[in-house]
Design brief:
The complex is a heterodimer of chains A (102) and B (173). With 102 residues, chain A is mostly helical. Chain A has a single domain, classed as Helix Hairpins (Orthogonal Bundle), CATH 1.10.287. Chain A is 77% helix and 0% strand. Chain A is elongated, with a radius of gyration of 17 Å. Chain A starts with 5 loop residues before the first helix and ends in a 13-residue tail after the last helix. Chain B has 173 residues and is an all-alpha fold. Chain B starts with a helix and ends in a 6-residue tail after the last helix. Chain B is globular. Chain B is built from six helices and no strands. The longest helix of chain B has 26 residues. Chain B folds into two domains: 83 residues, NADH-ubiquinone/plastoquinone oxidoreductase chain 6, subunit NuoJ (Four Helix Bundle (Hemerythrin (Met), subunit A), Up-down Bundle); 43 residues. In chain B, 74% of the residues lie in helices and 0% in strands. In chain B, α1 runs antiparallel to α2 and α2 packs antiparallel against α3. Classes of the chains: A mainly alpha (102), B mainly alpha (173). Chains A and B meet through α1, α2 and α3 of A and α1, α2, α3, α4 and α5 of B.
Chain lengths: 102, 173
């Protein structure tokens, strides 16, 4: 990989992460917040892969595998919570999440 | 340079999809925009020479995780009228200002970091990344990272059980 490809890829990951952060700050719905979190996870994956490619090292790529796997688990648990919350309240506002406190 | 094309194209697709995903009111359109963003990211991975991860990105992210999102959007019958509109005034501009500040600082720091990066060890290897890709990854995954790999499988099992437990019907007491 040419060194001049490193910075554009990092900038792209940075942009994706920033958009995810913006979505997290602005959207007031649990499902859309999950979408923003997926975006941020993907930005992290792109960073790992870029550095793995830059140093020609497989370690970073393995972390991408782990990251994708964890994202799948996170999505499944989060969506399970969403369905459960919807069954009890017919409403997915953030205010209802307060009852998850123990 | 050929790899500029997929990286540039995929990067633009990914950024546009991400921007649409956080701006669109209709949740189904938002999820579909995120699918577009993931496909663009897969293109970037192909451009980086990591074909395996591009394929995984398409199969697992676009094909499984986001379709699961789509199913849930339809299952809970989320319509645009259920989504509160984006805030106006100070919360909106404050959030945009914070995000831009974050992005500017990070880009500036990355540029300084790029100059301080150590020289690459790869020049001496001489083996194209593309060809050693899967073999090297498999070897490291099942030797040095065997324990995290097993723990990850356990995490998947916990996710499976948790999702079943959370969504099962329970009589109201």
């Amino acid at each position: 990989m040419k060194p001049e490809l490193l910075y554009p890829c990092l900038l792209l990951a940075n942009g994706l992460f920033t958009l995810g952060l913006l979505g997290l700050l602005l959207r007031r719905n649990i499902l859309l917040t999950f979408l923003a979190i997926e975006l941020m996870l993907n930005a992290a994956n792109l960073n790992f892969l870029t550095f793995s490619r830059y140093h020609e090292e497989p370690t970073g790529a393995i972390y991408v595998l782990f990251g994708i796997c964890l994202a799948a688990v996170e999505a499944v648990i989060g969506l399970g919570l969403v369905i459960r919350l919807f069954r009890q309240h017919q409403n997915l506002g953030f205010a209802k999440l307060a009852e998850l406190k123990w | 340079m050929l790899s500029w094309i997929p990286i540039g194209l995929g990067g633009m697709l990914a950024l546009a999809g991400a921007a649409l995903a956080i701006a669109l009111r209709d949740p189904i359109y938002a999820v579909l925009a995120l699918v577009k963003s993931m496909l663009g990211l897969a293109l970037v991975y192909f451009g980086l020479g990591a074909d395996y991860f591009g394929a995984i990105q398409i199969i697992v992210y676009a094909g499984a995780i986001l379709v699961l999102f789509l199913f849930v959007v339809m299952l809970v019958n989320l319509t645009p009228s259920d989504i509160p509109p984006l805030p106006r005034g100070l919360p909106l501009y404050g959030a945009i200002f914070l995000a831009l500040l974050w992005m500017g600082l990070l880009s500036w720091g990355l540029r300084a970091f790029g100059r301080a990066l150590p020289p690459r060890a790869a020049e001496a290897v001489g083996v194209p990344y593309l060809y050693q890709n899967l073999k090297a990854i498999g070897k490291v995954l099942l030797t040095a990272y065997a324990l995290p790999f097993e723990v990850l499988s356990l995490t998947l099992l916990v996710g499976l059980i948790g999702a079943t437990l959370l969504t099962q019907k329970r009589p109201k007491s």
